[in-house]
Design goal:
By secondary structure, the chain is mostly helical. The chain has one domain (about 1-295). The protein has twelve helices and no strands. The protein has helices at about 1-25, 30-50, 60-85, 90-95, 100-110, 115-135, 140-160, 170-195, 205-230, 235-240, 245-255, 265-295. Helix 5 (about 100-110) packs parallel to helix 7 (about 140-160).
């Protein structure tokens, strides 16, 4: 449990950089995600071939992983769209509603009992986002895209829970992102027609940041996240990811001076979100402590 939590927090810290990189890269959100997925899938293919771990899977699992991968592609596109239409801080705070969406959707999809504590903590993050939105109405489009991104993230996180017990982590990641890239490629002509852009190819600086984004903040983060997901609940995974806005916002304040755009409402809302994360961590450790008090093997 402790190792899984440590891996999860490392993944969250690295994920906090993704929003910053989204600002550094000049491509529009659709092309940014297309190149990110292309580099990531190519890197995973090389790693898996070198380690002789590139395995074939059942065609039904293959189709399911492609479907989940399309959710990943849409999640990233809406997330970076939120950054482009608002800023890094707003996109990350909107993304923090994953705790609320998980508390509602996971019991429905995985057919488990709805937990009042999870719903309550998730609602705390919703109140935080509402306060930020109420005090910053100019960021409406960015917030809406951020909420859609959070919903998509929760959806593929819950569905991943169905695979991690049966398939290797790197195999899941490869087929999901490969499938997502194919779906995004098919949609790209329509996307570019709706959202024209000045250029289609990355600059030298774009390539540099795309490599960092793909290798460090995607390949490594996915591996750490899925390893943790095998030991922790989806709700714990997603609520812990609410620390991503904390890391990302602090970096946005440092690199882009975004703190000058916000008032007291933003910081009150952010404090509520941070409180929800702390309370969930307390719940996890309390549960773990109680389990240690009960013998695992009793012989009668």
């Amino acid at each position: 449990m402790k190792k899984a939590l440590f891996q999860l927090h490392i993944a969250v810290f690295l994920a906090g950089f993704t929003g910053i990189l989204g600002r550094f890269i000049d491509l529009n959100e659709g092309l940014l995600v297309w190149y990110r997925m292309l580099i990531t899938v190519a890197s995973l293919a090389i790693i898996l071939l070198f380690q002789k771990q590139l395995t074939r899977i059942d065609w039904r699992d293959f189709l399911k992983l492609i479907a989940v991968g399309s959710l990943v592609a849409l999640h990233w596109t809406t997330f970076y769209g939120s950054i482009k239409y608002a800023n890094v801080s707003i996109a990350l705070v909107s993304f923090s509603t994953i705790g609320f969406f998980t508390a509602i959707l996971e019991p429905l999809i995985l057919q488990r009992k709805l937990e009042f504590a999870e719903v309550s903590l998730g609602m705390l993050t919703i109140v935080g986002v509402y306060l930020i939105f109420n005090f910053n109405p100019d960021y409406k489009t960015g917030i809406v895209l951020g909420l859609i991104s959070a919903l998509l993230y929760v959806s593929f996180s819950i569905l991943n829970k169905l695979f991690v017990a049966r398939l290797p982590v790197m195999t899941i990641t490869f087929y999901e992102l490969g499938g997502g890239w194919v779906i995004l490629t098919l949609l790209m002509p329509f996307y570019l027609r709706l959202f024209p852009t000045r250029y289609l190819f990355p600059t030298f600086n774009d390539w540099m940041w795309l490599l960092v984004l793909a290798l460090l903040c995607t390949v490594l983060v996915f591996r750490l996240q899925l390893n943790a997901l095998a030991k922790l609940s989806t709700f714990t995974n997603n609520l812990t990811y609410n620390l991503e806005p904390v890391y990302g916002i602090l970096l946005a304040f440092i690199f882009f001076k975004e703190n000058k755009y916000f008032d007291a409402g933003f910081y009150i809302g952010l404090s509520l979100i941070f409180a929800a994360v702390i309370l969930q961590m307390v719940r996890i450790f309390n549960k773990q402590s109680k389990k240690k008090l009960v013998p695992e093997h009793v012989t009668y």
